[in-house]
Amino acid sequence: MVNSKKLLSLIGLATRARKAVSGEFSTEKSVKSGRSRMVIVSEEASDNTKKMFTNMCAHYKVPIYLFGTKDELGHAMGQEFRASLSVEDAGFAKSMAALMNVNGGSLNESK
């Protein structure tokens, strides 16, 4: 699970670089405004949250991944718990996607 740690580190870097936003409202706003390059939803998120983001990302053609626990995502971002986050930088998104494909993080990519 080394890739999992690398991925969480990348999320932390993206957050500190102000290239990632978290929380349901901010993630939704990022996707709808066209700034989002990738959405990550926690595997622990409610079915309603997963369905909402899956449908929204399919409509706006943004890749979506299910990865990690709420605690892991929140900790990586320096917060409490986070069920969803949006990466707004193409470089970070590409690196994270490569790690997720190797890591086997549940992939729901919309094209």
TrEMBL record:
SUPFAM superfamilies: L30e-like. Residues 6-95 form the Ribosomal protein eL8/eL30/eS12/Gadd45 domain. Coiled coil: none annotated. InterPro entries: Ribosomal_eL30-like_sf, Ribosomal_eL8/eL30/eS12/Gad45. Transmembrane segments: none annotated. It comes from the Bacteria. This is YlxQ-related RNA-binding protein. The lineage of its organism: Bacteria, Bacillati, Bacillota, Clostridia, Lachnospirales.
